Structures are given as C-alpha cells and as structure tokens.
Amino acid sequence: EEFFHREKYPRIRMLSDMIELGAAEGRYVFHGKLIIKDKEQELIFSFDANQKADKTELSGRFSIQRLDFDLGRNHSSFTIGEEVEVILRVLVSAEG
Questions:
Q1: pTM (2 decimals)?
Q2: What are the CA-CA distances from residue 37 to residues 4, 10, 14, 32 (Å)?
Q3: Helix count and strand count (H, E) for the chain
Q4: Sheet holding 55-65, edge to edge
Q5: Beta strand segments in the chain, E
Q6: 74-80 long-range contacts, Cβ below 8 Å, gap at least 24?
Q7: Would you tell me how many other CB atoms lie within 10 Å of the CB of residue 36?
Q8: What confidence category does residue 77 fall into, taking pLDDT thresholds of 50, 70 and 90?
Q9: 31-65: per-residue pLDDT in tens?
C-alpha cells in the first residue's frame, strides 16, 4: 500500500476539543485528535499565533510515531525513522 494512499484516504484531519492559553503571550495549547488513514490519536501541542498585517500566522510542531498510523508499514526500503516531526504553519484571514 502507498505511504499515504491518498486515493483511499484523501484527508489528514486535526480536530480540536479545546484551545487554551499558553504560558507566554501569543502562545496556545491545542488539545484534540489527529486522524490519518482512519487511525485516530489524541494530540496535545503548543503553537504560536502572530499577527502579520491582515492575517494571523499559527505555527507549531509535534512528533508522531508513523507506524501508529500505518505510514510506510510495508515499505522496507525507507530511510525515514519511526518518529516523524510534523511542522505546521497556517495563515488565517477573515473573509469580508
């Protein structure tokens, strides 16, 4: 099976249960779920929110165990580790 098998699993989803204020200004903590290939894991990570002109940039990072999501389980030629760091950068803007 393909690494992500995007025809069968076209979406990777993050669903928030709660966003709370972090310890520093502009810092927040995401509490929710990460869903990849119909495998669901609880997820908690910190992220920053920075205003940039008319947009807000959200940036954060977290690590996952790729085999928990069946990513590359049947590929013996991988040189990628089992723990993978995910780096997020999301630009948010208000629609008028």
A1: 0.81
A2: 7, 9, 12, 17
A3: 0, 5
A4: 13-21, 27-36, 39-52, 55-65, 83-93
A5: 13-21, 27-36, 39-52, 55-65, 83-93
A6: 74/1, 75/3
A7: 19
A8: low
A9: 999 999 999 999 999 999 999 888 999 999 999 99
| 80 alpha carbon, distance to own chain's centre | 18
pLDDT at 9: 81
Task: Pull the structure tokens for residue 1.
Answer: 């099976």
Distance CA 24, CA 16 (A): 20
Asked whether 36 and 8 are in contact (CB, 8 A), the reply is: no
Contacts made by residues 61-66, CB under 8 angstroms, sequence distance 24+: 61/85, 61/86, 61/87, 61/88, 62/86, 64/34
CA nearest to 61, candidates 36, 35, 43: 43
AA identity, residue 31: H
The continuous run of DSSP H or E covering 66 comes out as none
